[in-house]
Amino acid sequence: MDDELFMEEALKEAYKAYEIDEVPVGAVIVRNGQIVGRGYNQKETMKDATLHAEISAVKDACANLGGWRLSNCTMYVTLEPCTMCAGALVNARIQRLVIGVRDLKTGACGSVFNIVQSEKLNHQIDVQFGVLEEDCSGTLKNFFKKLRNS
Question: Which of 39, 53, 89, 124 is the most exposed place for a label (fewest CB within 10 A)?
Fold first, then answer.
């Protein structure tokens, strides 16, 4: 299944974050079956609060596609986006969002807030949860377990 294949690619990005002691969240953006953007958390490493996986993937996709509108694109992300990232996805006109695991503390795609489907905004995103949920959740749990034991 394509959703699982592309979520595996997002998990590869999350592992890059894990290896540099960042919260392991990864994202990829796909258009017409091809990955056009990749990103992983780097906010601690780069000392930049905006360097979430989703923002990095959006910037990469915009650069690769030559424009800011990511219409007809799907983002695969291992953890539900926060308010900043959800807003960026709406602004970029992402068509579909596939999420590995919900974020019950800061998720802005249905868990705490639902920015991406708000009818008050000019664009809504089709959202699907739970693709490779155990793998995505396990990566986060292992990271925080490692952090507690350090």
Answer: 124
Number of H helices, E strands in the chain: 5, 5
pLDDT score for 148: 86
Task: Say how many C-beta atoms besides its own lie within 10 A of residue 84's C-beta.
Answer: 16
The answer to whether the predicted template modeling score (pTM) of the entire model surpasses 0.85 is: yes
**131 alpha-carbon distance from chain centroid:** 13
| Known catalytic residue at 54 | yes
Q: Are 54 and 88 in contact (CB under 8 A)?
A: yes
Catalytic residue among 9, 54, 133, 134: 54
- Look-up of token digits 């650069």: 63
Helix (H, G, I), strand (E, B) or coil at 32: coil
Mean pLDDT, residues 101-105 taken together = 97
